[in-house]
Amino acid sequence: MISSSANRGVKRISMKNVLSIILGGGAGTRLYPLTKMRAKPAVPLAGKHRLIDIPISNCINSNILKIYILTQFNSASLNRHISRTYCISDFQQGFVETLAAQQTPGNLDWFQGTADAVRQHLSLFQELDVDEYLILSGDHLYRMDYQDFIRRHRETGADITLAVLPVGEERASSFGLVKINDAGRIDQFSEKPKGDPLRQMQVDTTRLGLSTDEAKNKPYIASMGIYVFKRKVLIDLLNQHPDHTDFGKEIIPNSAKDFNVQAYLFNDYWEDIGTIESFFNANLDLAKQPDPSFSFYKKSEPIYTRARYLPPTKQLECHVSQSMISEGCILKECRISHSVIGIRTRIETGCTISNSLLMGADYFQSNFEREGDCNRATIPIGIGANSEIHNAIIDKNARIGCNVKILNKDNVEEADREEDGFFIRSGIVIVLKDATLQDGTVI
Fold first, then answer.
1. DSSP letter (8 states) at residue 49
2. N or C: fewer beta carbons within 10 Å in the chain?
3. Residue limits of the Nucleotidyl transferase domain (predicted)?
4. Alpha-carbon distances, residue 143 vs 31, 182, 183, 320 (angstroms)
5. Pairwise CA distance, residues 395 & 122, whole Å
6. Can you give the pLDDT at residue 417?
7. pLDDT tens-digit series, residues 111-136
8. Residues of CATH 3.90.550.10 domain(s) within the chain?
């Protein structure tokens, strides 16, 4: 029987000998232009957090305090966020550190894949006295107690354990799928199959503990890209197969015959937010009441982020519904619905914001509380008076003039207008970080 993350109240186990390795991902092309000036794990989330806060918080809540983050693209803001946010006491023998790709006398290449990223820093990881390596991704939204995961790994004597998710047919072809035997051991893999190969990967997921109805709707088992390895197994696999650069496509599928590869069921909310559309929808879902799919309001398992000590938000005769408003904002006689408003956002009189994500600003401009004025030499950071924004992402420090309309009335699905300060992806308008839209602009 496969263990489930819903298994609570079980005696906690020691995590002192576990090293967490969080993969920062590649260039983040699917999240471009949000990754134009930052690493994928540094993309803002939920108004005040960043994507990397999710796996790090899961580690801390699971008492895993040895954490490395591997990155190679636009890592400056990520490094800054990590250094300012996560300072683990020396008495706890823990750390949270970023490791960037680097050229060495023995290797002149960038990371070639997930496994290669770990391989390039393997000598450093071997210096630590740990028994297991926990491999995580930096662009997933979920809450997991990794102690349950590692307990399952130890109880089954597994060499490798994968976290798996039951999914329906509409999502299955987007994942690497697995089949398991009665002991929970994985004996078959298929990477993003379609057609007949997809249907051949169907399993009776009641064996995982799902109800009959739920199993009917979710007849596939998807790998979540979350793994735990025995120390020696990972070291040997990476050293013996230098041509294998990816965990999900090469290392793990080729290990099933010779190693005990087990599955761990995670039947809870999990979202790969690696695309603009999934990122946008996941953020707006947070504002849903009363039951968002994921909640930041959980006392026992908080999601940590940088403490900024910002003042409270001021709302001056505003109408706000189904929205999240971060701290340090000034909102003046505006209407906001089903939106997420990031830190230090300024919205002037007469604006309407709906179904949108505003990431806010990195700093306060002088005279932040000033009266709105459309007769000025320079457009300030924020949203100018009488502007209307719908179905959009406004990246940090953007300057939106007065009487701007961001509506995509022509329902354009894809557009690259970098010279004008915006892109359109899946019908969502993305205004670039630090961009300026002049008064009266219509998109």
1. E
2. N
3. 20-288
4. 22, 27, 26, 28
5. 36
6. 96
7. 678 888 899 889 999 999 999 999 99
8. 18-285
Burial per residue of 382-394, b for 16 or more beta-carbon CB atoms within 10 angstroms, e otherwise = bbbbbbbbbbbbb
CA distance 430 to 426: 10
The mean pLDDT value for 397-420 works out to: 96
| Residue 362 reports pLDDT greater than 60 | yes
Q: What is the Cα–Cα distance from 279 to 276, expressed in whole angstroms? A: 5
Q: Which bin fits 195, alpha (ψ -120 to 50), beta or left (φ > 0)? A: left
Helix (H, G, I), strand (E, B) or coil at 404: coil
259 DSSP assignment: S
Distance CA 115, CA 244 (A): 7
Flag whether pLDDT at 81 surpasses 70.
Answer: yes
Q: Where in the chain is the domain with CATH 2.160.10.10?
A: 314-437
Q: Which pLDDT tens digit goes with each residue over 11-67?
A: 678 899 999 999 986 667 889 999 998 888 999 999 999 999 999 999 999 999 999
Pairing assessment for the beta strands 176-180 and 66-71 based on DSSP bridges = unpaired
CATH homologous superfamily of 314-437 equals Hexapeptide repeat proteins (2.160.10.10)
Does domain 18-285 fall under CATH 3.40.50.150? My reply is: no
Which runs of consecutive H residues, i.e. helices, occur in 262-347?
276-285
**Buried-exposed string 88-125: b where 16+ CB fall within 10 A, e elsewhere:** eeeeeebebebbbbeeeeeeeeebbbbbbbbbbbeeeb
